[in-house]
Design brief:
Largest sheet of chain B: 3 strands, antiparallel
Order of helices and strands of chain B: HHEHHEEH
Low-confidence stretches of chain B: none
Distance between the termini of chain A: 22 Å
Helix content of chain B: 55-70%
Number of strands of chain B: 3
Number of helices of chain A: 10
Mean pLDDT of chain B: 85
Largest sheet of chain A: none
Distance between the termini of chain B: 34 Å
Strand content of chain A: under 5%
Helix content of chain A: over 70%
Structural class of chain A: mainly alpha
Radius of gyration of chain B: 18 Å
Oligomer: heterodimer
Order of helices and strands of chain A: HHHHHHHHHH
Strand content of chain B: 15-25%
Strand order of the largest sheet of chain B: 1-3-2
Shape of chain B: elongated
Chain lengths: 238, 117
Amino acid sequence: MEEGIMRISADEVKQLYEFTRKHYVEYYDLQTELVDHLANGIESQWKRTPAIPFEDALQAEFKKFGVFGFSEIVEEKQKAMRKRYHKIIGRYFLKFFRIPKIIATIGSIYLMYVFVLNVPYALETLWIALVVLIVSVIRLLMKNKRANKTETKRFLFKELITSYGLGVPVLLIPLNILNLSNMLSHGADHVSGKQAMVVSVVLVVYIIYAYIVVFEIPKNAEKYLSEVYPEYNLMQKM
Amino acid sequence: MRKSNLYKGNIHTIILKLLGDHNKMYGYEITQKVKELSGGELQITEGALYPALHKLEAEGWLSVEVEEVDGRLRKYYRLTEAGEKETVSKLSELENYLQTMNAILAKRDMPGEPLAQ
């Protein structure tokens, strides 16, 4: 440390975190990065003019972020994180369409096809199964959301894993499948082979997707979190 | 020309190049380095720097590490292997562009000269 230069104190670091929270930066990783940035800026102002009070120096640094403050950075960060999350889903997904798993995937589609075509009330049974699935996913989602809210240090990627992935795609896709099968069974006693094939493919792909976001990724959550957030491990030790 | 227009499209290239030269850097350091290298001509704004860094990170071109410095956490960025390749290709892209621009600007278009076939 250079002598005679004023440094940001631990208490001021706390104030900076509070400042970012007040300016709608909810997630700890981004708060940390911005706190360090602001602190560096303030210290460099003190280097030139040591008499500037902390608050004034902070306001001057914040001004450099422009009229929208941190909001654009927050938005872009969310986009980047979603992209990373989708990439991970994509990696898992591909596995189901490569040897050896593709054999199981095709086998499941075939079994589903036979089931839809031959078993009485097959579509109705599938609806019930989907409703049960949706209800359990909603319960899991609510539980995770409550847990996330109580955390003092929030991590965006953790919330993507525990709620975003479950929320939007897992809950919206079944509605479309329900519509699709509703349309198929409407007034028709017999489902055609082609229709049964469409339902089977869509359902199996959906089940794979749901399996990945509900089980596979959360199972490896710690691994992804320490990959995305090097501070995650450091923080656990602090 | 307004300063901001000069580098807007090249902010990713600038970041990649700096990280290629400096091993690892943190956000504030990058803004200061650009200012210093350009003699104050270019200033990467905070609002542009961080989105660019996060985007490059999501692409897998940068990796991050966190260290405790002066009682606070500092996030460092460094190039990944894929990032090194991307830097080479981005730089040669920029070089080609500059050469083309130079060629266009250096040539005086003579009035009345027949167009080359």
